[in-house]
UniProtKB/TrEMBL annotation:
It comes from Streptomyces lavenduligriseus. Residues 417-675 form the Polysaccharide lyase family 8 central domain. This is Polysaccharide lyase 8 family protein. InterPro entries: Chondroitin_lyas (IPR008929), Gal_mutarotase_sf_dom (IPR011013), GH-type_carb-bd (IPR014718), Lyase_8 (IPR038970), Lyase_8-like_C (IPR011071), Lyase_8_alpha_N (IPR012970), Lyase_8_C (IPR004103), Lyase_8_central_dom (IPR003159). GO terms for molecular function: lyase activity. PROSITE patterns: TAT. Keywords: Lyase, Signal. Belongs to the polysaccharide lyase 8 family. Residues 691-755 form the Polysaccharide lyase family 8 C-terminal domain. It comes from the Bacteria. SUPFAM superfamilies: Chondroitin AC/alginate lyase (SSF48230), Galactose mutarotase-like (SSF74650), Hyaluronate lyase-like, C-terminal domain (SSF49863). Residues 42-374 form the Polysaccharide lyase 8 N-terminal alpha-helical domain.
Amino acid sequence: MTSRWSRRSFLAAGSGTAAALGLGTAWAFTAPDEFPALRARWRALILGEGFDPAAEPFRSRLADLGGTAGRYLATMAPAAGSLWPDLVYAQGDPDGDQDAYDRSSRLNSSYARLSTLAQAYCQPGTGLTGAPRVRDALLTGLGHLHDDVYHAGRVPYGNWYNWQIGIPQALLDLCVLLYDALPAARRAGFLTAVDHFVPDSVVADYTGSSTGANRVDLCRVLALRGVVGADPGKVALARDALSPVFRYVTSGDGLYADGSFIQHRSVPYTGSYGSVLLGGLGLLFALLAGSGWEVTDPGRQHVFDAVERAWAPFVYNGLVMDGVSGRAISRGRAAGARLQQDDHTRGHAVLAAIVLLGQGASAAENTRWRSLVKGWAERDRTSPPLADPTLSVPHLARLKGVQDDASVPAVPEPTGHRLFPCMARATHRRPGWAASLSMADRRITHYETGDGENLRGWHTGSGMLYWWGATFGGDQYGDAFWPTVDPYRLPGTTVSRKVLADGAGGDWGAVKPDVHWVGGATDGQRAAVGQYLKGFQSSLRAKKSWFFLDDAVVCLGAGITCADGTAVETTVDNRNLGAAGDAPFTADGTAGSAGAPWSRTLTGAGWAHLGGHGGYVFPGGATVRALREARDGSWSLINKGGSTAVLTRTYQTLYFDHGTDPADAAYAYVLLPGATAEATRARAADAGWLSVLANTNRQQGVSVPSAGFTGVNFWFGGTAGALTASDPCCVVVCEKADGTAVIVVSDPMRMRTGLTVTWRRAVGAVMSAPATLLASATGAELTLTFGDLSGTAGAGQQVTVGLG
């Protein structure tokens, strides 16, 4: 999916930029002291502007803010080791254990509560606006935390993030909001503390914890330290230290040329850390625009390009897909929290970040992005963004501004397929539905755990296939899915039932499978994708393929072998039916019970259908297990900081039972999102629609003549249907009605220094080809000879031909 908008030059520096950003003359900078204007601008950025506090959704949100702040005000009780009795931060057991992490997090939370108090003090309509008692409590609280723990000379404990990002960001925001009320000596002490915990050296090298979103967060700290302390060197350092974030990377953290975004070296993180990166850059671009420290590095265009190349493919009707949110999927509801995080709340934060970033982009980009955001927001009927209680007032103001702008049209969801070889992910969009695929390889972890989070996400990289309907299924993974789903039966995955420990494999994406063949090829609309699967802490081996088509996903598995002494299963689907769980299920025309629990073995099944969701076809018939069950769980089971409240959701599961220690087992099924029962029955009866060309440990491929589609994953060189490959590769052929065809060839292993592909089809001429194609021969058949593909990063090489 490529943007239809051309890229334009950057906004000019100086007062013209300020006007272009809509910041007005109030933000004009005058030499030599720009810092008062920068402080005023930051205040507006973090409080929001241009909204009516007496109108909804702001009136209620501001009242809620006042209520929360009032509770914090009433319970603040400064004591050694705490500012609130329920947030004891005094260092306990030795550094490095969970206790130290918990206590540093409580210190961070203490500053966050002070930030909430300051918001209530500065925002209108909170009931505490400008109240002297709130100001006095803030000064007392800030002084206590500084004197007790967050001061120069103190040795940090627990999570580095709290000391270098979370706490100083909140502290510096508070310094801006309370600038005139803070005694100069007190303010100087706070800045000295920031210098101690966040020295300039944190951005000296682009490595470790100073990369990607973390680097942007650190630059925000340095920039605000400079603004509050009127230190131009600090602001310049922050600006210059952003430059490595803009560059495309080829390994580790950051943005990749194919649109991938990685954090923690091996975790796809577009939806979580990526959101932080977008929002952080948007704030810094806006803060420094027109000043003597404006961000002018031309590399920032990579970030602007990434809005549509990296973020938009993973946003669907307001939600951001969980396959790129890492361990954040386990943060549904924290212990004692009133608000819940899910794929929609994470998506809304991305939407607001895009609006903010647009202020620093070209006029064309800003216009296009606002239209994208308006469309996503309008279509999010599951969780409307303006009713999202987790959104800050500034974020609400930005989204409300887009909603109310009659000049902004809502852009519909696009159709097409996007492959992200550098993070082993794929997205597929068709009219009425969308899907996302998560895999793992030698560069990309099976899953990430850490800080006691995502303790049972072991198999999320084992070929998990997510899918949503345009008008249904919007809460499929957001409605308590992660704490209640069977973690061994995630949709699309093939896994061993070997029992795994919570957090197995180690923190921060430590375990990656030693496999190379993961990836695929696409013409931009349809695709073939494959995963050589090595099971997580298991002897399981399998070859898995997905063929993404106009109204279906064809799924093949072969070579499924395991010696764990446990059962091995492939989950066709595991749909969350919510608390009621009464969607009708039909198999080959026979209805199952709408209640739960029940289980059936479907012998020789040709098709199945789940009302309100879609259909499933089993080519040639198959033995499939069907299960409906109500499952209990709590967020605390998958996240140590989660709520212990017990939740219940009903699931409709379809799975292949490959038995204990299978040898060379296989499966085949077709997913039909949104299909009716009659359409599913008709597809199953249409013997000519699909031809499975191969489903073995050596090749997997299909042909759909009516769509002109052929796709083959060559795990080894060989032949499948009319295609022959000399070596491992992926080949997609799409024949067009105009007498042309597109052949896309990729090297998922990134190892081929030469490759020959033959298509036994009459071809008249090669019309276009990439530089990697060394030679071609046409006539009764087409032969394509490629050179070195090892440097293509798994990207498809597209050849267009005229058919003979």
